[in-house]
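Collaborator request log, item 7. Partner lab (contact: R.S.) asked for a structural prediction of Pilus assembly protein to inform their binding assays.
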Amino acid sequence: MVDFVLVSTLVTVMFLALIQLALVLHVRNTVADAASSAARYGALADRTAQDAQDRAELLLSTSLGEGYAQDVTASVSTAGGVAILTVSVTAPLPLVGLFGPRGRLEMSGHALVPG
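Returned to partner:
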């Protein structure tokens, strides 16, 4: 009887840890995809860096919630004579469910600006 309780507790903890790891990977991939998708959207001929920032905030708030769309920046820089649009997202790293410390997950997406 005691063996069952101890083993089932251990299996339950391992299962919950696996689910949390899957959630962390989902959040990381979603933030990375939102940043890169917003960068490509902002690099279109009739769009600006502000459009890219708004797009990233929309994607993050729709898919993960408002807390993940708080710190989004978009900027245009030049490297080798080519304009590059960079969208950077700093989001919380989910430690328990979707809750965790702010500013622990930093992702960015880049796109070439036609010109």
